[in-house]
Amino acid sequence: MPKNKTHSGISKRVKVTGSGKITHAGSGKRHNLEKKSSRQTRRMDGAKEIAAVDVPRVRRMLGI
């Protein structure tokens, strides 16, 4: 049987944690940061978990 290939686009955008959760970087930290408050940009830090409805599709794309 041929092997399944990992979707290279999704592999660059998500990370699988040790417990198996799929995380992604939050949006809004790329540009126009001067007009956003420090409080707002601080809350945009860190990884967010992928929505439950999207997890099966992302897992399939990753070949998990």
UniProtKB/TrEMBL annotation:
GO terms for molecular function: structural constituent of ribosome. GO terms for biological process: translation. One of its GO terms (cellular component) is cytosolic large ribosomal subunit. Gene3D superfamilies: 4.10.410.60. InterPro entries: Ribosomal_bL35, Ribosomal_bL35-like, Ribosomal_bL35_CS, Ribosomal_bL35_sf. Residues 34-47 have a biased composition (Basic and acidic residues). Keywords: Ribonucleoprotein, Ribosomal protein. Residues 1-15 have a biased composition (Basic residues). Residues 1-47 are annotated as: Disordered. Pfam families: Ribosomal_L35p. Belongs to the bacterial ribosomal protein bL35 family. This is Large ribosomal subunit protein bL35. The lineage of its organism: Bacteria, Bacillati, Actinomycetota, Actinomycetes, Nakamurellales.
